[in-house]
Design brief:
single chain, 93 residues, mainly alpha, 0% strand, rod-shaped
């Protein structure tokens, strides 16, 4: 195996890791959203007892948190995956 094929194989491994991390991140945000919808009152009561926050603040924290995780998931996993796949496609041409 020469140096070029080793580099390509490493990029393929990294891209497969990145897409799996992206899928796990999407599953996490989906679980968070479903949990937030189904047990909104229970989650609020727990957090209100711990932190004395209002319902509006609780909703904002959840929505902003989900948005932050989605953006980080896209930025750190999907964008590098697409960039690596573009490099690999260009090397194969």
């Amino acid at each position: 195996m020469n140096e070029s094929s080793g580099f390509v194989s490493e990029l393929e491994i990294i891209s497969s890791i990145l897409i799996r991390c992206f899928a796990i991140g999407v599953a996490f945000v989906t679980f968070w959203f479903v949990f937030f919808l189904l047990s909104r009152d229970a989650g609020y009561l727990i957090h209100n007892n711990l932190f004395q926050i209002s319902r509006h603040e609780y909703d904002l924290l959840n929505y902003y948190g989900m948005a932050f995780v989605k953006c980080c998931n896209l930025l750190f996993f999907l964008v590098p995956y697409i960039a690596i796949r573009m490099v690999l496609r260009r090397r194969n041409v």
